[in-house]
Amino acid sequence: MSQRLHKTKGVVLRSVKYGETSLIITIFTELFGIQSYLVNGVRTSTKGSTKASLFQPAALLDLVVYHNELRNLQRIKEFKWSYLYQHIYSDVKRNAVALFMVELVTKCLKQPESNEDLFHFVEDCFLHLDETNETICANFPLFFSLHLALFFGFRINDEYSDKLPFLDLHEGLFVRERPTHPHFLEEKQALVTSQLLKCMRPEELDQIKLNHAFRRNLLYAYETYYAFHIQDFGVMKTLPVLKELLN
Question: How many CA atoms lie within 13 A of 132 on its CB side?
């Protein structure tokens, strides 16, 4: 079966050294969903090391790729920056948030299928994160976690009110009575989750003022929520790092 060339955008999720000079890159592509690519010769010489820098997690790339449905490992013919970040790789806090986003997306993407709406959401979030202020940056993981769930079919329905004051994390619903299990949010945590769900653009996060401990506890609650809805989700390795940096 012949391989055809395709132009696609991609977000780098992971890169692993292979042999002396090569990398195996996991990329979430606009056209084909999550894919693995073998890239030869990018770890040689000074020139090569610059090329390897394009494959850092969260990098937004323009790609020309060979694609064969029957292969697990594809090849890249051409690659260049689609957008060169101003801050994500130089600012420690933004970088920690970007790595959290990359990990969350990676844990949710199980099959190599196209989802252009999801791709555009993820791309848009990285672009916003790159140019955002401190408050928005600190709230960004909360916003991203709640809105990403939409694309995997388990977004929380925002029906919070005085009559529905508890958020049941098992069901992803605001409910009237306190659940009998321990996995629920109430009071300010439920209210803030409702406010975050109402934010349709990252700029709106500037209005939500939270302290560090509160944000951290919400993030752990959202991690629990994902674990209920994504098979083999496990735990987020980037969360403890984020916890320290967003202090």
Answer: 27
Cα angle for residues 46, 48, 54 (degrees, 5° grid):
120
CA angle, residues 237, 139, 27, in degrees to nearest 5: 50
pLDDT interval class at 48 (50, 70, 90): very low
Domain-terminating residue out of 69, 84, 99 = 84
For the entire predicted model, the pTM comes to: 0.94
Domain count, the chain: 2
76 lies in the same domain as 113:
no
Shared domain check, 97 and 74: no
DSSP 157: B
Q: Which pair of structure tokens corresponds to residue 241?
A: 């790092």
C-alpha dihedral (14, 241, 187, 139), degrees to nearest 10:
-70
Contact 27, 39 (CB under 8 A): no
> Distances in Å between the alpha carbon of 146 and those of 36, 48, 142, 143, 219?
27, 39, 6, 5, 10
Please give the residue range of the domain that contains residue 124: 86-247
